Amino acid sequence: MLGRPSRSLARALPARPSASSALLSTAVVQKRFRSTDRKSSEKAKLHTSSSTQQLPPAFVEYSPHRGKGMTVEGKQRVREHVRRIQSSASTNSPAAAVRPAPAAHFQQPPNQNTAASPYAAEANPNIRDGYDHSFVGLSGGQIFHEMMLRHDVKQVFGYPGGAILPVFDAIHNSPHFDFVLPRHEQGAGHMAEGYARVTGKPGVVLVTSGPGATNVITPMQDALSDGIPMVVFCGQVATSLVGSDAFQEADVVGISRSCTKWNVMVKDIAELPRRINEAFKIATSGRPGPVLVDLPKDVTAAILRTPIPAKAVTPGATPGLPQNPLHPTVGNKQPGDASLITKAADMINRAKRPIIYAGNGVMADPEGPELLKKLADIGGIPVTTTLQGLGAFDERDEKSLHMIGMHGAAYANYAIQEADVVIALGARFDDRVTGKVDTFAPAARQAALEGTGGIIHFEIQAKNVNKIIEAQLPVLGDVVASLAELVPQIKNVDRSAWLNRCKANKEKYPFTFSPSQEGQRLKPQEVMKELNAQAEVIGKEKFILSTGVGQHQASIRGDGTAAVMWACQYWRHAAPRSFVSSGGLGTMGFGVPSGIGAKVGAPEKYVINIDGDASFSMTAMELQTANQYSIGLKTLLLNNEFQGMVEQWQDLFYEERYSHTRMHNPDFQQLAEAMGTKAIKCTTMEELPAKMKEFLEYPNDRPVLLECMVSSEHVYPMVPAGKALHEQILHPLLRNKTA
Ligand SMILES: Cc1ncc(C[n+]2csc(CCOP(=O)(O)OP(=O)(O)O)c2C)c(N)n1
Ligand SMILES: [Mg+2]
């Protein structure tokens, strides 16, 4: 038999040989088949009877008797072929014979279990000869419980049901973690997202089969879109029933395939610990995201009878999980290629008008925002962020240009169009950021043609590189690790002219609005400004915001509907991990549950959910969850009695035909009170400061609602779909100014 290397050489044979090599092949084939059985020699005859030119050399590859008849000539032929490939590479082909060393990502050390381990052999007498005996005699549910302990899970969000009962039974009164029962599994998913977003730890969800699992699809897609680590465990019918349309059976692995990073059905109790390890590893490594583990009831109800390999039950060890070079693992964060980082530093040092465009990736590590600040301070470089990057850079810093994009700051949009070098950090050039793609950053593209600048993209996920915007310098690797190597190479260059230009635009094109007049409804901007002002007094770093989706939030969705962000425009973000908003998917109903999850993750903080009336209505029942567990979520409801964001589009592009966007709301005051939530209402500007104060000072461990009746406003600036960023529609008050 051919050994492995020889086989791959055989695969490298050309599909159409030259005449001489085909002749050689014939000789080889004839000889080979003489030395094998009769059936084969008949086959050989069949081949030799045809023109020798047509003999496919691939035959060597596909013959079931490959290798048996491999003659000396055959081997020689393969060697010659390889020599030919190599010599052509060094002479005729542009590809180098000796390939350059692969990037750091491709040279990762082998997986090692580095977990500080109370479960290591010395510490754990149950581990003998590499096998862990401590699970013997435990049910699948109990193993789940034990694995949560080993993964240091402190919080689970979930909802029980028949197929997952063995697990719920095993976690009954668990001393290891707290459990929050939402009113709907979607709530559990968004709570886990909010928790993950503020703690940096994966959010854990536990639900039943069928509808329990399908109700978590939206949060999983949401987490996938925004790169949030989440581990979902769901029940499943017994393995013997899978595929039989059993009660509450759903093909959850199939359904969730496209909205998870990875999913698996555990078919044997002995696999359970290993699968749980894999789930945590995949959810938290590379670009974080959701994973799903499907747990058939017979697996969680079964009792484990034999010990299992110790590595399979040790967090951090993932035997069988192939090392994906594009997804560096946690604790093994690899920067991008050093030579590319040096090139990036050179490009930045030479730039006249550089700009940093920072996304969520910067906050993957607590060091990220510090490094970003150093990069901006040393280089004298202005910073704009994506929606998910809000908080990565202190927006009160002079160099902050705030959020970019469709409803971002006008001055950020102008600046990125004028910049000669765009430094994208852990951001993926969402279409809401770029506007019309081929008009994005024209000055940087021109500088790239002239060799004086361009777009540098620091990114962890290969698929995001050159997906929407071509980067002249893509640096694939952990963004924070790359930044750590980049910053020391950045020179202090005087860029005061460029910074002054950005500053002047900031003054010229501020976020603006016409204040409400006597007897008019409050403007949503006035409410956000009041919140911002009072929060400054208390201390911005003590605040976390969650949002729904709409004008109160800020983004525009692909179907042409718009959501604008009062919360982004009128709140100056100061700290990382302090903004919890559904960016990529734009999920209405996100605000209350994600705010609850955030508050659970950071109970000492003021967690304010900025919500719209329509978004709030989608998941308002979760206020009862906050009531039950005394979770002090503060909901600031901007009630315009409309799906305001959609209304804005109907105004602008559908001739004011308000097709099903007016909201006939319940009495939110009574609704909140019915769920043990203190309710406050504000209708005038005069009472706003006092009501806001009452809202903020309400005990931080009880839920409270401040409902502000606001007018229906358009959100500006706005980049219409299909337009360039600099073609944004400014607020009417700014329209006579030119950039
Ligand atoms: C689940 C879901 N359904 C529909 C939409 C489309 N959509 C985006 S914003 C919006 C209206 C939001 O209204 P509201 O929550 O009151 O916020 P406002 O714009 O009035 O501030 C709609 C229907 C969505 N983003 N998510
Ligand atoms: Mg509304």
TrEMBL record:
Gene3D superfamilies: 3.40.50.970, TPP-binding domain (3.40.50.1220)
Domain Thiamine pyrophosphate enzyme TPP-binding: 562-708
The protein's required cofactors: Mg(2+); thiamine diphosphate
Xref: PROSITE patterns: TPP_ENZYMES
Pfam families the UniProt entry points to: TPP_enzyme_C (PF02775), TPP_enzyme_M (PF00205), TPP_enzyme_N (PF02776)
Principal place of residence: mitochondrion
Biased composition (Low complexity): 1-25, 94-104
Annotated keywords: Amino-acid biosynthesis, Branched-chain amino acid biosynthesis, Magnesium, Metal-binding, Mitochondrion, Thiamine pyrophosphate, Transferase, Transit peptide
Record domain Thiamine pyrophosphate enzyme N-terminal TPP-binding: where: 140-253
Cofactor, how bound (note): Binds 1 Mg(2+) ion per subunit.
Alphabetized PANTHER family for the sequence: ACETOLACTATE SYNTHASE CATALYTIC SUBUNIT, MITOCHONDRIAL, THIAMINE PYROPHOSPHATE ENZYMES
Name of this chain's protein: Acetolactate synthase
Originating organism: Apiotrichum porosum
Recorded name of the encoding gene: ILV2
